[in-house]
Amino acid sequence: MLKAVQILGCSSGLTIISQRLTKSSSTVSFLSKSINPLKLSTSPRKTTTLCFNPTRMSTSSLPGSDPVPKSPTFVAGDVRKIKFCQWCGGPTKHEIPDGEEKLRAICTHCSKIAYQNPKMVVGCLIEHEEKVLLCKRNIQPSHGLWTLPAGYLEVGESAAEGAMRETWEEAGATVEVVSPFAQLDIPLIGQQTYVIFLAKLKNLDFAPGPESLECRLFALDEIPFDSLAFSSIYVTLNLYLEDLKKGTLKFHYGTINKRPGSSPSDIRAFSLDYHLQP
Amino acid sequence: MLKAVQILGCSSGLTIISQRLTKSSSTVSFLSKSINPLKLSTSPRKTTTLCFNPTRMSTSSLPGSDPVPKSPTFVAGDVRKIKFCQWCGGPTKHEIPDGEEKLRAICTHCSKIAYQNPKMVVGCLIEHEEKVLLCKRNIQPSHGLWTLPAGYLEVGESAAEGAMRETWEEAGATVEVVSPFAQLDIPLIGQQTYVIFLAKLKNLDFAPGPESLECRLFALDEIPFDSLAFSSIYVTLNLYLEDLKKGTLKFHYGTINKRPGSSPSDIRAFSLDYHLQP
Questions:
Q1: What is the pLDDT of residue B132?
Q2: CB contact under 8 A, B74 and A179
Q3: Which of A114, A176, A188 sits opposite B49 (nearest CB)?
Q4: Residue B99 domain-assigned?
Q5: SS3 content of chain A, % helix, strand, coil (to 5)
Q6: Mean pLDDT across B190-214
Q7: Residue B63, domain member (yes or no)
Q8: Taking every annotated instance into account, which residue ranges of this chain make up the domain Nudix hydrolase (chains A, B) (predicted)?
């Protein structure tokens, strides 16, 4: 789906004021430790727990980190940009409704509230004879860089169905979804959650769709880590390779927090926080 | 968060025309096979794969099922209800944009497209000394029925943070998120995805928030399966008990498809399709 990928991972124009400090004891960081991620032996793949302290109830503050005040100028998903009711056309006011805690856009005519929620990006990590299928992007952002086939989940489809649809649209590939592999939240930039499934090709008939310049099967030691499109793809492929080295593929949950002030194009400027596994 | 739970799981008023037929070989069904879910020994907990056949590209059609035509009157998330642009207030038109496949609401003034996407409901399955924490709902739908603390993910927070926040708001409980436990998509009703984490109480200081009448730790053989609020909670608790019986807690992905024509309050009128595990 064109629109999904046009915005996918795009962080330019967003002003992130809130700074999320990582809890070092529970952080797995890929921060440019190595050019070859196969050599990322220094990253402890520890399972950890995430604690909640109600005395610091800001969502931008975690136990073990310095408290960070809620910022009134947090721009990602800024509710103040919602100026009209999409149902009746009435002008909105921006208030915290009774019983809630967040600023919302409320219609001054019909009183409906326009809620904003993070979006799911669904995709496939396709394995075929010890190779993985990647697509070179034909759209911005990250034009010309490599990615997994992925895009926004649509209403009326499951995450697995959406991942297969995106794979068909971007790589012309017919796949079987085999198992869930990762959920990677990116709460501060783009307000996205990546849900990635392991999948297998049903046949070798794949070809780039309009959003892709090229689709190619890469041997595991030839994955173009220096030309990947997004941090989420970098993390997913690293976790996959590390699992393979250990001999077992597991499900991964984690939060990707970009390093404050880093360029959106610097896909290694992040920490993978609160990496949890079953 | 009040609003989240007020809509959570609500399916009344939705007209579901599209009928999703289950693929029997890959279906795990809890369809009223037993009053006591602990005795659900007939349900095969097989891991299966989900296939995508591009010749049947409707998202309401799956290989192995009868093809179901796309319905123009699919009401859940109906884009036609979006009549105005929320950014500039201009009237919308409803068309399929170039390069896309779905009907969208497009502003006739500024040309922006109002995309609709499924929402994530995040929650905690809290274990404490072989008991689980449930909340009796003080709001509709399912007022007076038992649920896990859960609600809509907000922008700016990770799924684990959202699950802890909801737990605090609904049960006054401070928890540690231990691991991801389940992703359950409900694509046809409510357009939701449940993301449930296993969690542990940090202490025994919990008490019902405004959305709960009561919060209580239930022994595993006393879980009120006849008084649960939603199918998603029924599935989650069943999977948990079955995992415990097997001696290992795993991550579960699945799709909950309500039985066509069933009452929203009949939480056992569903099939759990495409149950996948790592």
A1: 98
A2: no
A3: A176
A4: yes
A5: 20, 30, 50
A6: 95
A7: no
A8: 117-241
One domain, residues B160 and B221 = yes
Range of the domain at A88: 79-114
- Would you place residue B2 in the very low, low, confident or very high pLDDT band (cuts 50, 70, 90)? very low
Residue of chain A with shortest Cα separation from B70: A156
Same domain, B162 and B230: yes
User: What CATH number does the domain containing A152 carry?
Assistant: 3.90.79.10
CB B98 within 8 A of CB B121: no
Domain of A97: which CATH number? 2.20.70.10
For residues B235 and B205, membership in a common domain is answered with: yes
- Would the CB atoms of A180 and B278 count as touching at under 8 Å? yes
Q: Could you tell me if A97 and A222 lie in one domain?
A: no
Is the preceding omega at residue B149 within 30 degrees of 0, hence cis? no
For residue B228, the distance in angstroms to the closest alpha carbon of chain A comes to 24
Q: Please indicate, yes or no, whether residues A226 and A89 belong to a single structural domain of this protein.
A: no
Nearest Cα residue to A106 out of B109, B83, B165, B3? B3
Count of alpha carbons within 13 angstroms of residue A158, beta-carbon side: 27
Closest CA to A201 of A228, A222, A177, A183: A177
- Whether residue A115 contacts residue B152, with contact meaning beta carbons closer than 8 Å, is answered with yes
Q: How far is CA A169 from the centre of its chain?
A: 19
Domain assignment present for residue A169? The answer is yes
Q: Is A128 exposed, middle or buried (0-12, 13-18, 19+ CB in 10 A)?
A: middle
Per-residue pLDDT of chain A (278 residues; tens, 9 = 90+): 433 322 333 332 222 222 232 333 333 333 333 333 333 323 333 444 555 544 333 333 333 333 222 333 333 458 899 999 999 999 999 999 987 888 999 999 999 999 888 999 999 999 999 999 999 999 999 999 999 999 999 999 999 999 999 999 999 999 999 999 999 999 987 689 999 999 999 999 999 999 999 999 999 999 999 999 999 999 999 999 999 999 999 999 999 998 888 888 899 999 999 999 99
Q: What are the DSSP calls for B57-111, one per residue?
A: --TT--TTS---PPPTT--TT-GGG--B-TTT-PBEEEE--TT--S-EEEETTT-
Name the nearest CA neighbour of B20 among B80, B71, B79: B71
* Residue A57 in domain: no
Could you give the number of structural domains in chain B? 2
Which residue in A has a C-alpha nearest to residue B19's C-alpha? A156
d(Cα A55, Cα A63) in Å, to the nearest integer?
10
